[in-house]
Amino acid sequence: MPELPEVETVRRGLTPVLEGARLSRVRINRPDLRFPFPERFVERLEGATVMRIDRRAKYLLMPLSTGETWITHLGMTGRFTLDGTLLGEFEEAAPIAGKHEHFSGCAIRDGAATRIGYADARRFGFMGLISSDQIETHPWFAGLGPEPLGNGFSGAHLVEAFADKKQNIKVSLLDQRIVAGLGNIYVCEALYRARISPLVAAGSVSKSRLERLATEVRNVLNDAIAAGGSTLRDFANAEGGQGYFQHRFDVYGREGEPCRGVTCTGVVARIVQGGRSTFYCPSCQKR
Ligand SMILES: [Zn+2]
């Protein structure tokens, strides 16, 4: 399942092709993904220019010249594919993403077109078109906390958000109202890096340790984004590419394996919190 770094990697991969490009030959191959496509979706995208590509939590947002913003959530298996071969504006391009391609179109810039596909085998992804001035109040975005890589996220923010909180810190960090777009994998990894036990009450952790945690949240996301950058070629290669990168995790998915801490002889454990697996080292994350 794509988490924030994967979505950010997709954003960076699409930007050189889509930013400033006019959309043409848009097609959908079924009426819905997780939700129905918006009404008159094709007509509302055709001819519009993509101003830029933003990311909010795990959403990709493309403000258009029409005053609407094209929004995509990749769900579990959604992926954009690009045919890197530049086509003439009126040249037809063959589908590239196989039977699970539900959306396609061309991005036209300087008279040349790049074909875009969107494939989603499990169809947990979805697309929307929202008036650009109503994004912040839309139910998908209203109430989201600050971006973990943005200026609004810090140790001080966690101190305030966690004040008197009895809930454990693992589940608290997954709360999208506290920080947006942070998922299970990176919460486990950040708590490990900060050497904080996932079991402690969020409100009991000291300010200095929450400052370290905020730093480690940023570090682990930035490391994953940096690792994802090297797979952009595969991503652009479409079907047959590697898909999302396999970042090397310290604890996630490593139950029973030795802790990577240089001086630690502990073994990574798995517990369930709030219905999700937590991986941690009980030896170096004692409190
Ligand atoms: Zn350890």
Find the structural class using helix and strand composition: alpha+beta
**Roughly how many Å apart are the termini?**
30 Å
Fraction of helical residues = 10-25%
Regions with pLDDT < 50 over 5+ consecutive residues? 231-245
Count of runs of 4 or more consecutive helical residues: 7
Specify the overall morphology: elongated
User: What proportion strand?
Assistant: 15-25%
How would you spell out the order of helices and strands? HEHEEEEEEEHHHHHEE
| Rg, Cα atoms, Å | 21 Å
Mean pLDDT: 90
Strand line-up of the largest beta sheet: 1-6-7-5
The biggest beta sheet is recorded as:
4 strands, antiparallel
The total strand number stands at 10
Which small molecules are bound?
zinc ion
